[in-house]
Amino acid sequence: MNIKRVMIVGTMIVAMSFGGTSWGRTAALASPVAKWSTSTPVADKDALLDALNQSSDEELYESLYEGKSLKDIAAENGGNVDSVINLQVAQLTEQLDLRLANGSITAEQYIAQTAELRELVTESVTTTFG
Q1: What is the 3-state secondary structure (H, E, C) of the chain?
Q2: Mean pLDDT across the stretch 49-72?
Q3: Is the pTM here over 0.85, yes or no?
Q4: Which of 11, 43, 68, 91 could bridge 47 with an S-S bond, Cβ 3.0-4.6 Å?
């Protein structure tokens, strides 16, 4: 399991669940659905673990399974929550860039989604999924 991709998907699910945002409106309109690419790396291998000051994917998974948010995990382990947010914003921006380039979203959708990306990611970092 690639925990970094799990976190990105979780962030996107949280972002898309806000029906009043342009993410919720445009996600249903975007066609075709963007697929995860294994040919381009989502992030450096240990970027998320480094930002959270975690030693392994398993350690991070256990903390998430216990119901801790990424903010909680970073705080407990001397990690840097701002680095986590920046990493996720960069990863999601890369995915939006690909979707725009592939034509699965319009320029207007891209602008609206990137405009609120940092706020949504910041909120998702404090959300527990357990």
Answers
A1: CCHHHHHHHHHHHHHHHCCCCHHHHHHHHCCCCCCCCCCCCCCCCCHHHHHHCCCCHHHHHHHHHCCCCHHHHHHHHCCCHHHHHHHHHHHHHHHHHHHHHHCCCCHHHHHHHHHCHHHHHHHHHCCCCC
A2: 92
A3: no
A4: 43
